[in-house]
Sequence to fold (234 residues):
Amino acid sequence: MSFQMPGGMAITGAMLQWYRTNTAVIFWQWVNQSFNALVNYTNRNANSSLTTTQLVVSYVSATSSALLAAVGYKGYLTKKASPFFQRYVPFVAVAVANCINIPLMRQNELIYGIDIQDENGNTVGKSRVAAAKGISQVVFSRIAMCAPGMLILPIIMEKLEKHKSFRSISFLHAPFQVVVVGCFLTVMVPTACALFPQTASISTGIIKVLEPEFYEDMRRNGKIPSKVYFNKGL
Fold:
């Protein structure tokens, strides 16, 4: 996660600069989703492992969804909207892919559940609902992390490109966008990670209703706390 800012600023800046052709869109979305897949895998709940097949399926699915969203949205905007709105193709693709990439990379947590602890840190059972809550929070945080840069920078570039002096230094447009995205991410990476507590909680009453089998396992293991805690991942 500490590499999210330098890695993200380079890739996001490139996506925002080269968005006009399908070839550029496809290439940079592939690069971005490859990077995201690595980040999502390494920042999952460490107690959940994936097989090689699951990793490959997750990577291909997330990358394909990003490419389809980017190319499809770009094609729609080419016919229906002004060129300015095509600048938002990268953000739409990234948002869609995050909603697919993260759950797929952490699918075992949704299938088998994650460890849940009492207030003293003792493991009392497992829960799929806790995994779903943690993953949904991470998806929201990741989209919030990239949103300011990818939503505001296109407006800045649209204004600047109206000036002849700025258009004359087109070779600096890409570095400029990389630096500006880096400034946004410097603030947004820690902010987005802090939107939700790293150690999340959930009521055992919800587990009792939605996961009676896990609730029964907890009951057999001893006293059931009113609330349990878990690591949501990053």
Q: What stands out?
A: Strands lie at 114-117, 123-127, 199-203, 227-231. The longest helix spans residues 128-160.
